[in-house]
Amino acid sequence: MTDPAAPSWRIVLPGIPITSSRGALGWSTVTLVQTGEYNLLVDTGSYGDRAQLLAALDAAGLSPEYVDVLFFTHFHYDHILNFDLFANAVIYLSTEEINYATTGGYQESNDPFVPAALYPLLAERVKPFSGEVELLAGLRTIPLPGHTPGMTGLLLENEGVLLAGDGIKNGYEFSKGEPPPVFGNSDAALRSYQRSAEVARVIIPGHDSPFRLQNGSVLEYLDSFSLDIVFAGEPGKEPETIRLPRR
């Protein structure tokens, strides 16, 4: 029987594993976790996501003012930029990641994706934590260092669902045993893969659809979707649409 008090989850914005000759597009997963007492968002997406994020929350029957908690897997721009929409929410971020973003660690690692100038704007709302702790009932933090030193996932313990952030960016890299882009430590990133397989039955990656695990390997994706990319046409021509099929 399902525990009525157990946290539930739903994807608000799907992560998409895509890059370009211009660089990473930064379309990260945003997940809503509801505990009965709290509405919690794991990451908040990037610029370009803002209108769709608000629309998706509205479709879920939730206004931004009723989001109680933001959990940041790490402090990269594509995962945190819409924090200001949620003025009533406390923010959980690991102590290791705070130090990385505020004491020059990201500069030493040549990490261009840390918006350090934003941290003072949210610092008063941040509740630091370190290591593996019970964040809320049924929700446990799982350190997944490698991509960044303070990268941390959130485990729904009863369901075995791990919101992995960029500890696991996508199923392709995970299945091949290739670490995500590393600004921390490559060996640590691979150990984080192993830790994820130990604790989870379902992985929600930072930039891909959720997938089920069996014996530590990708068994099946739980969602499928397609992506339309629209290029503005030349004068007198219609815009060109390219559809990328997704599983």
SSE order and pairing:
Elements: E1 8-13, E2 19-20, E3 23-24, E4 30-34, E5 39-42, H1 50-59, E6 69-71, H2 77-80, E7 90-94, H3 95-102, H4 105-108, H5 119-122, E8 126-129, E9 134-136, E10 139-143, E11 152-156, E12 161-165, H6 171-176, H7 186-199, E13 202-205, E14 211-214, E15 217-221, E16 227-231, E17 240-244
Parallel strand pairs: 5-6, 6-7, 7-8, 12-13
Antiparallel strand pairs: 1-4, 2-3, 4-5, 9-10, 10-11, 11-12, 13-14, 14-15, 16-17
What do you see in this structure?
The protein has 247 residues and is α+β, with helices and mostly antiparallel strands. The protein has one domain: Metallo-beta-lactamase, Chain A (4-Layer Sandwich). The chain has seven helices and 17 strands. The strands form four sheets. It has a seven-stranded mixed β-sheet with strand order 9-10-11-12-13-14-15. Strands 1-4-5-6-7-8 form a six-stranded mixed β-sheet. Strand 4 and strand 5 form a beta hairpin. It is globular, with a radius of gyration of 18 Å. The protein starts with 7 loop residues before the first strand and ends with a strand.
The largest β sheet comes out as:
7 strands, mixed
SS strand fraction? 25-35%
The overall pLDDT, averaged over residues, is: 93
Relevant CATH superfamily: Ribonuclease Z/Hydroxyacylglutathione hydrolase-like
Major sheet strand order: 9-10-11-12-13-14-15
Uncertain runs: none
**Count of spatially separate domains:** 1
Radius of gyration over alpha carbons?
A: 18 Å
What distance separates the N and C termini?
Answer: 31 Å
The percent range for helix content is: 10-25%
Number of strands: 17
Q: How many helical elements?
A: 7
Broad CATH class: Alpha Beta
Order of helices and strands: EEEEEHEHEHHHEEEEEHHEEEEE
Under the CATH scheme, which architecture would be assigned?
Answer: 4-Layer Sandwich
Q: What is the overall shape?
A: globular
What class do helices, strands and sheet pairing give?
alpha+beta
